[in-house]
Design goal:
5 helices
């Protein structure tokens, strides 16, 4: 799926950046350890060079001070690297969760809209049509409204009762106009005046879903062969 691939690439980039930051932090740790070892060695040499000297010379103290500052700077770099790594992983995780939640909302809206589309009932044919209209927008809304009266009449005259069930739905991709394309597989059990008794009818649909009126609605419906 296009969205899944884009999100995977984004997460991979974040992981690579985090690993690079971690490697830099490890290098800084090694450098800090080396600096501390050098400082300890210098202190031991200074103490053993002249046991009768009450204090190190100003030059020695200056060198030790510079090394201590270097060690502190390297320790700061280590901490910054670790914080950067943690931040990258947190951002990638948060983005993944937000996108997953959004996908679930879009898929849920598409599933319910398709259920309403394939489950008309002669007992409330007009209400069935209204549910389809409420789930529609754009081209699909215009297309259905142009045949709504014929739809209601056909359902009532044929005494059709249909119960739909979604077998599966998946996000195929996102489009430049902000809509999402979703593939839906479904089955409906139909009973009508022609003699059908819970007769199964399968559906393979490609629908486009777009945000409208504070929710998500079908903007296009296409039967997939």
């Amino acid at each position: 799926m296009l969205r899944r691939k884009a999100r995977s690439a984004s997460n991979d980039a974040a992981v690579r950046a985090a690993l690079e930051a971690r490697q830099a932090a490890l290098a800084a740790v090694e450098a800090a350890d080396a600096a501390e070892t050098a400082v300890a060695s210098a202190e031991m040499e200074s103490e053993g060079a002249d046991e009768n000297t009450a204090a190190a010379s100003p030059a020695d103290r200056k060198r030790l001070s510079r090394r201590s500052v270097l060690a502190a700077m390297l320790s700061g770099l280590v901490l910054a690297g670790l914080l950067t790594t943690a931040g990258l992983f947190e951002n990638a995780h948060r983005t993944s969760l937000e996108e997953s939640d959004q996908d679930l909302i879009v898929l849920g809206s598409a599933r319910q809209a398709v259920i309403n589309l394939i489950s008309p009932n002669a007992q409330d044919a007009a209400a069935s049509a209204d549910r389809i209209v409420n789930d529609a927008t754009g081209d699909w809304l215009s297309e259905f409204q142009s045949t709504k009266d014929e739809f209601v009449s056909a359902i009532a005259q044929s005494k059709t009762e249909s119960n739909g069930e979604i077998l599966g739905a998946g996000l195929e991709g996102r489009n430049d106009d902000g809509s999402a394309t979703i593939l839906v597989a479904a089955v409906s059990k139909v009973t009508n005046a022609a003699g059908a008794q819970d007769e199964p009818r399968t559906w393979r649909l490609r629908v486009e879903v777009v945000a409208a009126d504070g929710t998500y609605k079908l903007s296009k419906v296409e039967v997939v062969p």
